[in-house]
Amino acid sequence: MIGTKSTSGGRIADPGRWPARWWHTAKARVVCDLCPRHCALKEGDHGFCFVRQNSGGRMVLNTYGRSTGFCIDPVEKKPLHHFYPGTSVLSFGTAGCNMGCKFCQAWEITKSKNVLDRLSQTATPEMIAQAAVQLGCDSVAFTYNDPVIWAEYAIDTAHACHERGLKTIAVTAGFICPEPRNAFFDVMDATNVDLKGFTEYFYRHQTLSHLQPVLDTLKWIKHESSVWLEITNLVIPGANDDPGEIRQMCQWIRDELGDDVPLHFTAFHPDYRMRETPRTPSRTLVDARKIAIETGLHYVYVGNVDDPKRQSTYCPDCKTRLIGRRWYDIDTYQLDQNRCRLCGYTIAGQFGEKPGHWGTKRVPVDPAALLRSLEPEAIR
Ligand code: SF4
């Protein structure tokens, strides 16, 4: 028997061979329908993402219930600036990725061949949700590697989180097929989608994937779901920093998604197969933000740099600095729920009565200690 089915927790008999969803057979191969690569696998083969495998003529997921680590982060680090600012998030990821980005900033867990050996002990959806409650977190984030490739695990964990009143966040590149997309985002409260560039050339050559499915995902999230959406664009010198391309991207966001979708321009650091490319100059991020604001986008931020002015949220109407930030720290808060305290303008996003006070802390959580601290029913 492969795996042991459980909708929201319980024991995982064989996390390395969890029954996958979204596949079919054709010409003696198992064909994956989860992402637009549609890997066609012979017996024993792994997909491009490395975590889905043809095992006995069926597709299995070999990272269900296995994490590369847990950490409590500020929600601003996802980054999400309009989703319960100042609150804490229990973040975790697994291994592998369905993208092939040469500039990957987390390649040790997405691309390293031996990462599966470093996966931690089993963490069921139920355990993760209970741990988040015990640790006082407001949300659980599926992040570090793209949760699309471990959608079954993320979905079950999201259900367990919702049963406990926790919110769920997906940090993803959005490279997913329509059917699993609906099931995946159906259980998410917020998402940050990486829009990695704005040409098919860039996507094809620098990420080994395609642009259009990502644009389709963005439009679907904005118009067909209730998931709160923010976008990140990692600006890489000489690769996707052309001002004309950035302007086209901003125009597309304005026209297809609306002017109130927050956009984060973040700085690249040399990594993986782009170690010769320099770090993004702050000036480039400042210029990109200027282009976005000229285009008409209301909420544009810079990230991975020290720039409080451009990390803060301003009222699009009266220009008041509503949420003052330095990195992930909030020093000003001028919102009444989602309205500007001065002029009453409605700010897009989801906000509580008050901001959280988690601050800039990043607290790694030892999975073994976490396990020991849990109530017995969560680890049955
Ligand atoms: S999710 Fe993985 S196995 Fe499935 S098509 Fe994408 S890369 Fe291939």
Order of helices and strands: EEEEEEEEHHEHEHEHHEHEHEHEEEEEEH
Helical amount? 25-40%
Beta-strand percentage? 15-25%
**Major beta-sheet overview:** 9 strands, mixed
Straight-line distance between termini: 20 Å
CATH class type of the largest domain: Alpha Beta
Q: Please name the CATH topology of the largest domain.
A: TIM Barrel
Q: Report the mean per-residue pLDDT as an integer.
A: 91
Under the CATH scheme, the architecture of the largest domain is: Alpha-Beta Barrel
Structural class: alpha/beta
Which parts are unreliable, with pLDDT below 50 for 5 consecutive residues or more? 1-9
**Domain module count:** 2
What report would you give on this structure?
This protein is of the alpha/beta class. The chain has two domains: 47 residues, no CATH class; 297 residues, Aldolase class I (TIM Barrel, Alpha-Beta Barrel), CATH 3.20.20.70. The chain contains ten helices and 20 strands. The strands form five sheets. Strands 14-13-12-11-10-9-8-7-20 form a nine-stranded mixed sheet. The radius of gyration is 20 Å and the shape is globular. The two termini are 20 Å apart. Bound molecules: iron/sulfur cluster. The site of iron/sulfur cluster has 12 residues, from loops.
